[in-house]
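Practice problem 4.
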């Protein structure tokens, strides 16, 4: 059985992250990462469908496959709003969303729904060789939660910075490698 290696990398820095604003699918990167920041011996490159992930993956060339399961959580009506604005205008809804992983007061996807989507993708992932997957902080948190069997509420305590990497390997079971 050939080992499966999967490295998840968070997209590059966006204005939304810098400003604490809920992301929009067409958010652009503030600066493109260099190929040296991303390169390794990968047999395939996957990307979530949003512009920021595609732009990050695009540094590696044009052989990027879009993987819908790696998409960011849908923020519903909150798309494009800043956290400061939500604190001011919808403090109870924001507090509920931050404390209850099953809630979706914005009408989008809850953290629990995102985690289920990611768990299903990870359970079916079996590409031998080394794969680089460009995705989002919430998706990387959900993967960590699945592998470590963490309570969903604990995922909000994990910071995932731009270009942060999470390296996984599978040989009968998933393992997390700290770099």
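Answer key:
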């Amino acid at each position: 059985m050939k080992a499966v290696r999967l490295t998840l990398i968070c997209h590059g820095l966006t204005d939304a992250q810098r400003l604490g604003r809920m992301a929009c699918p067409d958010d652009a990167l503030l600066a493109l990462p260099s190929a040296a920041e991303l390169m390794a011996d990968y047999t395939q490159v996957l990307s979530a469908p949003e512009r920021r992930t595609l732009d990050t993956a695009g540094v590696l060339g044009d052989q990027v496959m879009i993987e819908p399961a790696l998409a960011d959580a849908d923020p519903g009506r909150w798309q494009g709003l800043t956290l400061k604005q939500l604190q001011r205008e919808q403090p109870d809804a924001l507090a509920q969303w931050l404390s209850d992983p099953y809630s979706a007061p914005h009408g989008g996807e809850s953290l629990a729904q995102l985690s289920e989507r990611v768990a299903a993708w990870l359970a079916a992932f079996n590409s031998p060789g080394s794969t680089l997957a460009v995705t989002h902080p919430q998706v990387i948190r959900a993967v960590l939660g699945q592998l470590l069997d963490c309570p969903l509420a604990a995922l909000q305590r994990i910071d995932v910075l731009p270009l942060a990497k999470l390296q996984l390997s599978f040989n009968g079971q998933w393992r997390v490698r700290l770099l």
